[in-house]
Amino acid sequence: MKILPPDFNPMNVEKTANDFIQTANVMNFSFHAGEVFYLDYEYDENLKNVKPTNDLSSLEIPEIQIKVNRKIVETIRKEVRTELSTEQLKDLDSLRLHNVSGYEYLLKSTDNQYVSEIEKEILDMYDKLSAESQEKRLSKYQKLVRKWFNVEFYEYAETPMDVSKKIFLYSMYVATASRRGAANFAIVDMQTSAFLQDDPRFVYESNIPQGYSVSSLYPIGNIVGIRIFVNPYIKYNDGKVILGRYTKNQEPGVIFGEYQKHFECFEEPQHNRHVFSLVSGVCIQPIGNHAADNYIQFNIMHMKRPWWRKLFKL
Fold first, then answer.
1. Against a cut of 0.90, is the pTM above it?
2. Of 122, 169, 215, 254, whose Cβ has the fewest other Cβ atoms within 10 Å?
C-alpha cells in the first residue's frame, strides 16, 4: 500500500532555511564537495590590542592584510527515519477519506525533526566558537581562580535595563574582535527573554512565520539592533547568552550547506514495516582563520552580585 500521490517527486522537498538557520551562511551544493571563497585578514597578534597613548611617535599601529582565501568542504549524509507498521500505514492512508493527506503530515513531522537536528548542530557550533572567544577574554587572575577554586564567572543583572546593557556591551566585544561590526543576534534562555521583553526599547517581531515547532529556536524581537532568539533546548533559567554576527557571503563565520535533500521510502517485508527517510548531504563548518571572533558568550544571573564576589573581583 502506498500513501504517496502518483505525481509525487521525492526530490521536490523544501530547502532548510528558517530564521535561526539563516544566521549562518546558507548554501545549496551541487555536489558532495565544493569550494568556499571568503575574505579574511591577517594581523600581528602582539599588536591586536593597542593601548591608548598621547605619544603618537611611539604608537604601533597594527597592519592588517586582507586576503581572499578558499576552503574545501564536504557534506556528510544525514538521515531522519520514520518507521510505520503495515497497520499504521493503513490508518494513515485512511485519512484520505477525510480529505487529509497522510503524506503531507508524515513529511512535515519528519522535516520538523530534521530541522530541529540541524538547529542543534548549528547551535553547538556557535557554542564552541563563542566559548573559544570568551576564553581569550579571561585575565590570568580569572584563569588561575577558575583552575584552583573551580569558580565560574557571571554577569549580574537585576533589571531589564541591566540585561540589555550587558548584551549590548558584549556585542561591542564582537565588533572589536571581528573588525566587521557588532553582534546582531543573541540566543538566550526563556527567563532572560522575559527580562528583555520588559525593556521599553524591546521591539516584537512584526511577522513571526507560522510553523515553528516546540523545539525550534524562535525569534521574539530585537533590542538595540540585536535580534533575540529563544533557546528551548536549555533550562528556563540556564543563564547562557550567546551573541554572534550573521554570516554573510564571503565573510568568516559559519556555513550551512545542503546537497540533494530528498524523501526516500521503501518497504521491509521481513520486519513488517515501511520506512520513510528524509535524506540529504549536510555541511556545517566554521569558515575563516578568525571565525570565533564573530561570536562570544557569557552567563548571566538575575540577581545582585554577592559581596564575596565583589571583594575578590569574581
1. no
2. 169
